[in-house]
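HUMAN: Mind sharing a backbone?

ASSISTANT:
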Amino acid sequence: MGQLSGEQGAVEATAELEGLAAVERESGLVRVVAVALVLLAFAALALSGCGGGAGGDTAGLTPQSSTSCMLCHNGTLSGDYAGPGIENPHPFPGAANLDCATCHGGNVAGDTKELAHVPPPPQIGDRDFQDVNAQAYFNRLTLVGIDKFPDYTVGGTTYTALDYLQWINPGDLRVTEAGLGCGQCHAPHSDSVAHSLLATSSGIFSGASFASGVENEVPASVDLWQDTAADLGWRAVVDPAFNLGTAQIGEVSELIEYPVFSVRNDPAPDAIHNNAAYNAANLLDDVQADGRLVTGSELANLYHEQVAFTCGDCHLGSAGANNRSGDYRSSGCTACHMPYSLGGRSGSLDPHVNKLEPLDPDDIDDPEWAHVRAHKIVSVKKTLSNGATVEGMDDLTCAGCHQGSNRTVMQYWGIRLDQNENVRKNRQYPANPVSFTTTQNDTRLFDPVLGNKEFNGRDHRQYLAEEDYDGDGRDDTPPDVHHEAGMGCIDCHGSNDLHGGKVGDGRSELRSRQEQAVAIACESCHGTATAYAPTVAGTSYAGQAGQHATDTEGNVLRHVRREGDGHLYLYSRLTGVKHFVPQTLDTIVDNGVVNPLSTVPGSEPVYSASASYAMGRIDGLASTGIGPQQEDWVATGFSHTDRLDCATCHASWTNTCMGCHLEGEYNQGNNFSNITGDRIVFREKFADFVYQSPLMFQLGVDHNGEIAQMSANTKTFFRYNDLNGARSEVFAFSDRNVAGNAPSANFPALSHNAMMAHSIRGRVDSENEGPRYCVACHLTDDAITDFGSEYASFRTAIQTGDYDSLNWTLLQDHIGRNPGNQLNSPMFVHMVAGLGSGMFLFDAGGAPVNPLDIDPQRKPLNVAPSTVYDPADIVYDLDRIVSETGTSFASNNHPLLTPGVADLLRDGASDLNMAGPLGTTLTELLANPSTGLVLDSWYNADGQPEGNASTFVGP
């Protein structure tokens, strides 16, 4: 084809791009191939002058009325995205047609690609260079080390590394904090986010350091907040306004950059490269007698490195791995506000973006890049005053980071991770479900058009949609009711939680743990047992003034409004759909409230007798509900809601992981630090889970001093393969406060922490299990009548460490096939109280010890535990987190936000200002049939009243 003048080319380009836009609305392979063909035609025709100065006629370009960016990428002579090409990313009134260079930098007057674009640093190079240089490709893909590169000169112009980083991602926090890209207009947001846990990852980095017992690396933070203060972040950051006298629990003055010891050719004495000091045999002396790592030792450095490359890329500082379906994303603001597609392929109308890469969405290959779904900012679903529509930020945007080990989004969707495929292989421990369904047909994870076979590196056999362990036809792992209603993550977690605090308040706090940065609570929308959710004056996203709910920090929830009928409504940030928000008080007291949005008027009363019984107060007043009354036990004034977190009862299932094996190895291949981008000589060999189950949970005291569900986590065993191929011993550690693996603890339990399970249910139904009813946590008359003698033997065995005398077959049923305690088993209650089930016993090397498990591939030894069972090998009892005297056997990572608030709940503990297991009074109350509380009135696991409960709630 001949070359075209600028004007003629623009006209014909418009026609071609209109065809492209139509093709983009199609789907499947036809769409992809058509896009590629039109792209080629477009490039050959109208944009020949944009291809790098290859003889194209650029005389017609008119930067005065349009930039070269707009002409090449959108196909218009005006500056308003009127062409059919790349979309307007920022249609917001007042800044609806931003010049491309305002965000990306570059030269708007450049009439060739070379003159208009910012060239890459020599360490990155072009695609051809990235195809042969693995480090260049790694840093281009992940964006990790780009800010470390020196200035460089191309064509007589000197560039900084941030110039290039801005060019490819104006939302990167290193860019925005320099006042560039998004930071030009949104500096307060940038400052807040850059200091947030989402950006620093200090909760993971510093939490792991605390759990391994090494000393805090920031002198000013030593011993601060029960010695849990964060010290390490992805990049160094300082809070100049920090004042210890006014600081809240968890706030710190600074974080230092997470050090890297494994850089190739590093000659430093503590570097791992070719250093015999790191030989496996030399590591045995690196653990103190109390179980803590020796700070600065070789073993401490190795474990530190393992945490970095196994757990250290789920933050906003970089683009993460960015290399497989479900993990594709960018960094900083862009990670959330301009999400990538599931498979990394571009959904943009930009004709210059390759629509075919990555060819294999499950395994990107150099020199392929990943791309955005569309060149459009997403935020809160709304229609702007200029008529433009902004889409809401969907859950898939969150899932790449918030699933993995914490599995939050998957749980919210009703999906459980079964890493080892134990259920499919009929090797689930302690028992297999009667039935299960995989996610093979779940298009949220596996798009039939895209053709991806994996999500986050796992296939449909590892993600389970349904499990039924007791054969009652109900899913024991149901989705959260909020998800069922069509709500998304952002409907609860808004600006405060996601931006690191109140934007624009002049502070950019650095916090140590997640809960210290989360302001939303169930009560924010649903109120309490005694009061409706409070409201204040505010303005909705649509600009309407009214009364709005607030979070616990007083931030206005602009999407939650009290309307003229007196009810509270939530307008979904994800979809814009209106939802009625029932108030807890109305579920307890029959105020005649019904769901006004019900399709059948009056058919959905809010009041529930079972809710009134569970959450009401025993005071005889109709205005406070029924309360959990008993015929033979008087507790005047008692209400569960006084000291229980909402999710304690309402979370229907809990992700449990017993035994996590991390193993690293010395390796001189193409391994790169996700902290600095340097080539390193250490990589992950294994990251194995031993047991995963949705059935087990324990109660403990959380950071708020409330009783909450707890979960086994970071029960970590670590070993190392050195440069000679020798394998070290297996190590497990005590935390900085000498808890978790202290020699003084009989059968230590390693780490256990409260975790907000995103599996909220209101009631049981024909298809799904419901909340935790009374029998999940309490002994009952029937339980003692039916299993009293077995329970007595069980308690004696656990208390004396005589595990070989356990009735393993009985426990397989009472723990492994008993969701929500359908059997009304006292052994289940004993487990929930934190006193142990006897099912999760491990030896010194982190291998399970039990006679039930027949899996010949059971980690870490790939041997069936039943074939080598020897009770003399037992060293750890991983779900016995507390003794009957209140002594904790477990480590906990979280200080109380109000010191002293849990003294009565954790009596007997030595660390009363930490979250942790229940104390002696509560464990006795729950699990001791002689001196504790044995219910004579209760609700069973099917949500039906039993014993004398009908006396109080009616038939």
